[in-house]
Amino acid sequence: MAATLGPSGWWQRWRRRLSAWNGSRMLLLLLLLGSGQGPRQVGAGQTFEYLKREHSLSKPYQGVGTGSSSLWNLMGNAMVMTQYIRLTPDMQSKQGALWNRVPCFLRDWELQVHFRIHGQGKKNLHGDGLAIWYTKDRMQPGPVFGNMDKFVGLGVFVDTYPNEEKQQEAQKRRYSPGVQRVFPYISAMVNNGSLSYDHERDGRPTELGGCTAIVRNLHYDTFLVIRYVKRHLTIMMDIDGKHEWRDCIEVPGVRLPRGYYFGTSSITGDLSDNHDVISLKLFELTVERTPEEEKLHRDVFLPSVDNMKLPEASTQRLTSPRL
Ligand SMILES: [Ca+2]
């Protein structure tokens, strides 16, 4: 389902901006470390970024806790350490999550995730990975990387264990060329509450796009960026230690309601890993819209993707409470 973009003007500006980033990643990091004071203009375009503290998380994690005054709430086995938040330790059958308490009403945003996945397990003997969420519900434990199934919103998965591939192997089946995915693998899914995430197939039936991301046991920092601008979802990663963003997923026509929650979660089963989140930084992006775009980009009440039919949500509660 992955799609590429036409050469629209704003996208060209984004591309230019990205290449500018590649050359000045250290500067960017320095800016980020000291940012939060007003807007930061990137490049010569019209785009401004504002760090939104109420949706961001960084050391020393003072806003994390269980109380109602905390900006971020922990769940399950998640633990606050001095240098990171550990969603799960490298032990079997653990699950943990971290949820922002403040709903996000921004139209255009970018979430930068600094994370680390590491453990004792050798190749393909580790799991299961972590997920990043922008969803209607929060703090709902379940089977999808520690979060509920049939979620409503966006899920981005950093899946470290190839369940489907292992099953195929056990049945002595081979993939046809071009079908096999190499793990760890990043994929994205948009759900209106009607779809189940198929864990046995690593989400293949519902993925919007994906890419291989060798992210385990690395000695340098690994980052993921989820950008949502003008209904265009872009996911990039910086996992090679080169301070460069690499494209992973691009999907136009993604309609996400406002007022959802950001979160991250992880689960281990028979196999395990340490799944650590070092920081989550949410930027408001200000972009210009033409009057036509303003009309087109009206608020929606259920997540959907253009040209992709999702089954109707089984629960009408999402839009109209049943009397
Ligand atoms: Ca998997």
TrEMBL record:
Q: Does the keyword Ribosomal protein apply?
A: no
Signal peptide span: 1-44
- InterPro entries (alphabetical): ConA-like_dom_sf, Intracellular_Lectin-GPT, Lectin_leg
The record's section on SUPFAM superfamilies has:
Concanavalin A-like lectins/glucanases
Report the domain of life of the source organism: Eukaryota
Task: Write out the entry's keywords from A to Z.
Answer: Disulfide bond, Glycoprotein, Golgi apparatus, Lectin, Membrane, Metal-binding, Signal, Transmembrane, Transmembrane helix
Q: Which residues form the L-type lectin-like domain?
A: 49-285
Under the GO molecular function aspect, what terms does this record hold?
Answer: D-mannose binding; metal ion binding
Q: What is this protein called?
A: VIP36-like protein isoform X3
Protein's cellular compartments: Endomembrane system; Golgi apparatus membrane
Q: How does it sit in the membrane?
A: Single-pass type I membrane protein; Single-pass membrane protein
Q: From the UniProt record, give one GO term of the biological process aspect.
A: endoplasmic reticulum to Golgi vesicle-mediated transport
The terms describing its cellular component in GO are: COPII-coated ER to Golgi transport vesicle; endoplasmic reticulum membrane; endoplasmic reticulum-Golgi intermediate compartment; Golgi membrane
The protein's matches in Pfam families, at most eight in alphabetical order, are given as:
Lectin_leg-like (PF03388)
